[in-house]
Amino acid sequence: MEKVLFLILAGISVAAAINVIFQRNTLYSAFSLIAVFGCLAALYVMLQAQLIAALQIIVYAGAIMVLFVFVIMLLNIRQEEEQKDRYHLYYLSLPIGVLLALEVYYGLSNIQDVSVPGAAVGNAESLGQGLFSTYLLPFEVTSILILLAIVGAVVLARKERDIPLEMLDALEAEQAKNKQSGKSEGKENN
Amino acid sequence: MTLEMFVEWAIKMAVIFFLVLTADAYVVLLERRLLGFIQMRLGPNRVGPFGLLQPLADGLKFIFKEDIVPLEADKVLYVLAPMIALVPALMTFSVIPFGDKITLFGREIHFHITSVNVGLLVVFALTSLGVYGVALAGWSSNSKYSLMGGLRSSAQMISYELALTLSVIGPVLFAGSLDLVEIVKYQTDRWFGIIPKWNIFLQPIGFLIFLTAAIAETNRVPFDLPEAETELVAGFHTEYSSMKFAMFFIAEYTNMITASAMASLLYLGGWDGPGVSSFPILGPIYFALKVFFFLFLYIWLRGTLPRFRYDQLMKFGWKFLIPVALANVVFVALLALLLF
């Protein structure tokens, strides 16, 4: 029963993953990727890692991919645009692919114990304990990294709206004015 | 897995599926009748006694309506969208507990299909998938009203999901578990032997945030901007007809029932009530009453409140609800630290 389920889920996820790459329509690619995440979540449940499964859906399928789909829908890219100057990147794909394959092989060859870990490994308690004791430093560093990324994104998005150089002088004068009026406005709002 | 377990699961799933869909149909009827009452008119009262067979007539009508697919629509996604909206909405009921357990034919029967140790997260995971149905429907219809509705809805659902998730940290902290059954069991205790330990008493702010965010998350009045009929015709499902439209309809009402069920599980003690410990069969009845109360509230709000403007909605979500929810997390954590 479990083997049959595993084969079905693994088959769907591999097929969907291949579809992500070969699909011409970007939106269909995105949805294939969501299907992959769904199948992976189901596989995690079969490994008794229910928390990881739920997080997989919440974080990847429910949050990150929503943004992807959003962007694709807003840009309305129906047909993949062929870009000639990107063809030289094809030569990079072979070494990178080989490197990745070697990495996967190395990772797999180190596995000795193939039994399913007990329910205690993947639950919220053990994950929380791990995150706030053994792996506290990586956890905090990651959170700072994400914060940096958010701040960086906001800064970059702001830069684009800047007024061209010719108008800088006028802008500075305006800013001085805005500061005063901004203060008074803020008071009104309060 | 033994055959007995399999049969038990199959029966439970069939029963819950039937109950949820029937409840959907009758919540629609209740809404129409109550809105009629609030607006001083009769509402549908012709089909059967008190109009009780109206849902049946509605269903038949949906099936026999012409199924229209716009010429320029993305056919695959257009057909897929209502399914994506409906399936996760119905799946949430696999982890929602309706009561404790009873002994029937020498077997312990639990009032839930399956108990997951992260039940709360599973519900959130499934409801977060619902946004795809709405966004896709809006995009694939190739109509500006649909697209506007779909985009609005996606932005709204993502924004209010934050406050919703922050507001449930309280009950989780108190119960020390993400399991919905455990969260309810914590609340079945009593203070001084009388007052139930329902989370609403110690976390009224969290409860209000949850309620507000849940109403926004289900796209209901006053947060029903995705289908604001005065500006967007019908929003994301403008182009849909027949059973495809009905599927969106069912998904919306199922999500309402889910939100009501979650509100009663997290803050009103779920199936807890007087006499449940000696007669566990009363549990589902109390639970149904609590869910009914929230559904009534939904309809009441719809009859009372006007719709938010889009910028008001965003401002309210990001600049008021989320900061308050964050402050509430700190408050609840302090409370948990002092009490336990």
Short account of what is shown:
The complex is a heterodimer of chains A (190) and B (340). By secondary structure, chain A is an all-alpha fold.
Please tag this protein with its features:
heterodimer, A: 190 residues, mainly alpha, Four Helix Bundle (Hemerythrin (Met), subunit A), 2 domains, B: 340 residues, two-stranded antiparallel sheet, two-stranded antiparallel ribbon, 13 helices, 4 strands
CATH superfamily of the largest domain in chain A: NADH-ubiquinone/plastoquinone oxidoreductase chain 6, subunit NuoJ
Q: Main sheet of chain A, how many strands, which sense, barrel?
A: none
Largest interface: A-B, 23 and 26 residues
* Number of helices, where a helix is a run of at least 4 consecutive DSSP H or I residues of chain A: 7
Describe the SSE topology:
The complex is a heterodimer of chains A (190) and B (340).
Chain A lengths: L1 H21 L3 H21 L3 H26 L14 H20 L14 H9 L3 H25 L7 H22 L1
Chain B lengths: L2 H36 L15 H11 L10 H17 L9 E4 L2 E4 L8 H22 L3 H24 L1 H7 L4 H8 L2 E2 L3 E2 L2 H4 L1 H14 L11 H4 L9 H26 L14 H23 L5 H30 L1
Antiparallel strand pairs in B: 1-2, 3-4
Structure, described:
The complex is a heterodimer of chains A (190) and B (340). Chain A is extended and about 75 Å long. Chain A has helices spanning 2-22, 26-46, 50-75, 90-109, 124-132, 136-160, 168-189. Chain A folds into two domains: 1-80, NADH-ubiquinone/plastoquinone oxidoreductase chain 6, subunit NuoJ (Four Helix Bundle (Hemerythrin (Met), subunit A)), CATH 1.20.120.1200; 124-182, no CATH class. The termini of chain A are far apart. Chain A has seven helices and no strands. Chain B has 340 residues and is mainly alpha-helical. Chain B has one domain. Chain B contains 13 helices and four strands. In chain B, α5 runs parallel beside α13 and α11 (242-267) crosses α12 (282-304). The model of chain B has no long low-confidence stretch (mean pLDDT 83).
